[in-house]
Amino acid sequence: MKARRRILAGLGIAATAALAGFAAVDASGSTTGASPRSSLTVMAPAAPGGGWDMASREAQQAMRAASIVNNVQVVNVPGAGGTIGLSQFARLPADPTQLMMTGTVMEGAITVNGSDVDLLDTTPIARLAEDYEVFIVPADSPFETLDDLLEAWREDPHGIAVGGGGLGGTDHLLAGLVAREIGVEPTQMNYISYAGGGEVLTALLSHTVDVGVSSYNDFRDQIEAGNLRALALSADEPVDGIDIPTFIDAGADVSLPNWRGLVAPAGISDEQRDELVEILDELMGSEQWQEVLERNNWVPVPLLGEEFEEFIAEDQARIDEIIEELGL
C-alpha cells in the first residue's frame, strides 16, 4: 500500500429482539469466569449478511479451524450504523470473552447519530483488514465509465439518485467526497439510504437508483454474473484480484478504505487485553486467515493494542472533519 492513506478520501421490533438476544447471551452467565481461549462471543453490530457480519463469521471460523479458541459464537445487533450495538456493548461488564466487530462505518455513525458513546468507551484490541467501496450501475446503464456518470451528475446534481448505506457511513461519505470533487454540493446530493448492500442491489436492479455505493463484496457476484458494472474502487491503488479502476485512476482524486477491527469491553485488565491481543495476533498470522484475506480480496492492516487505540482516536477525528466539511 502507498505510504499516504487518504481517509479523505423507531428501529422497531427487529432491533429490540436483537438487543434482547445479545443481552440474553450476556445474562446467561455462559461465559462468566471463562477464558478467552475457551470461549468468545463476537458481536456483529449489523444484520446478518452485511460486512461486519461477514468479517465476524470469517474470524469465527478461522479461530476455530486454527485451534486458537475452542468455541466462538457470533451474535447480531443491527441498527443505526452500528451505534445500537456499540451502546449495548459499552454497557457490558469488563468481560474479556466479549468482542465487537467495528470499523469506519461506525465512526461516521457515531458522529451523525449523536451517539453518547464512542469507540474509546471500549478497549481496542486489533485492526484486522480493510476492504473497499465501489460505485456500481446496472449492466444496461448509459454510464459506461466513471467519467460518464460524473459528467451527468455535474450537469444535474439532483437528477442522479445515489443509493447506499446509512447516513454518515462509508457509502455516504464516499458519495459526498466524489460529489465535492466534481463541484457538486454534498448536501444537495439525491442520496437514498438503505439498510444494507442487499437493498441497494434491489434498488439498482429495479432502476430505483442510478448508481449504488457499497462494499465490493456486496456486489461481487452480480458483477461477475454481468448484471452490474463497477465504475470505480475506493482504494488508494489497484488491488490484486479486483479488476476495477480506482477513483484516482478513473479521474476523481478520492479514496476511502473501510477497515475492520475488534474491541473488547472497557475496564478489562492489562493482562486480559494482552491475552486478547495475543489471540488476534495468532489469528492474523494463521494460514486460515490468509485464506480469508485472499477469498474476500481484503488487505491486511494489522494494528494491535495501544497502537490500535491511537489509530482509532486519530481516525475518528479525521472522519469527524470529513463530515463537518461535507455538511453531512
From TrEMBL:
The positions making up the signal sequence are: 1-20
Which superkingdom does the taxonomy of this entry point to?
A: Bacteria
Q: Which CDD domains match?
A: PBP2_Bug_TTT (cd07012)
Asked if the keyword Signal belongs to this entry, the reply reads: yes
Q: Sorted alphabetically, which keywords does the UniProt record give?
A: Signal
Q: Which family does it belong to?
A: Belongs to the UPF0065 (bug) family.
What this protein is called in its record is Tripartite tricarboxylate transporter substrate binding protein
- Source organism phylogeny: Bacteria, Bacillati, Actinomycetota, Actinomycetes, Micrococcales
